[in-house]
Write a structure and sequence with these properties.
binds uridine-5'-diphosphate; alpha/beta; 11 strands; Carbamate kinase; two-stranded antiparallel sheet; 18% strand; nine-stranded mixed beta sheet; single chain; 8 helices; Uridylate_kinase; 251 residues
């Protein structure tokens, strides 16, 4: 099993000791309209493995939008809280598939769910999760925050704060934050650095406002990069590659 070096220092040139990677459920869909593309799950797992090999402790939050979104369920007449619980259960399915992909590659993992389901995975226990990470295991946090009316972005900022992460990585469809959607607007400009306030006041589509506010309060830099560029996650860990970094100050 591949494990990060735990309490020893990360490899030379690596700027982070412990990070949380947030991947949306949609990233696991690949070219499909729904569900999981095993090839995509494997690709993302190999990105995580590369970062573990650098000696960085990694935990993950995976969304559920590839299977179910509470807002959509509510729009079709379902009670919002129930719809959100279905969404949270969707994230558990994604977490289990990521666990399976990582373990097949020899990476040691644990899934911890905010909604206890003891026959499937561990319940979320903060100190236990920290211990797993110190031992170099990848902890995958499932079921979001465990509360309806929240998102997995907020869950990612919450868990990153609880775990004492020094970086919150958001793996997206594009290589950072732009002035507009670069897939629709060819004049869109890439931001190298932004402040939390910039994201909130310019209403940039990075993460929802509560996730930004929580990261800001806990001084956790947010790094936005493309989950589709092979090797990008490891490069960002070394301060290289194209990405956007969001902190309190612009410099
Ligand atoms: N969800 C929730 N509470 C949480 C996290 C998620 O109720 O703390 C539900 C919500 O319905 C959401 C769904 O789970 O629509 C899937 O999560 P999200 O939309 O954040 O996934 P992503 O967009 O990242 O794939």
């Amino acid at each position: 099993m591949v494990e990060a070096t735990g309490t020893t220092a990360p490899a030379e040139g690596v700027r982070y000791k412990r990070v949380l990677l947030k991947v949306s459920g949609e990233a696991l869909m690949g070219q499909r309209d729904y569900g999981l593309d095993p090839e995509m799950v494997n690709r993302i797992a190999s990105e995580v493995k590369a970062v573990i090999a650098l000696g960085v402790q990694v935990c993950l939050v995976i969304g559920g939008g590839n299977i179910f979104r509470g807002v959509k369920g509510a729009a079709s007449g379902m009670e919002r809280a129930s719809a959100d619980y279905i969404g949270m259960l969707a994230t558990v399915m994604n977490a289990l598939s990521m666990q399976s992909a990582l373990e097949r590659m020899g990476v040691s993992t644990r899934v911890q769910s905010a909604i206890p389901m003891s026959t499937v995975c561990e319940p979320y226990i903060r100190r236990r999760a920290v211990r797993h990470m110190e031992k170099g295991r990848v902890v995958i946090f499932a079921a979001g925050t465990g509360n309806p009316f929240f998102t997995t972005d907020t869950a990612a900022a919450l868990r990153a704060s609880e775990m004492g992460c020094d970086g919150l990585l958001k793996g997206t469809q594009v290589d950072g934050v732009y002035t507009a959607d670069p897939k629709k607007d060819p004049t869109a400009q890439h931001y190298e650095r932004l402040t939390y306030m910039d994201v909130l006041t310019k209403e940039l589509q990075v993460m929802d406002a509560s996730a930004i506010a929580l990261s800001r309060e806990n001084h956790i830099p947010i790094l936005v990069f493309s989950i589709h560029t092979p090797g990008a996650f490891a490069e960002v860990m070394q301060g290289r590659g194209k990405h956007t970094i969001i902190t309190e100050e612009r410099e």
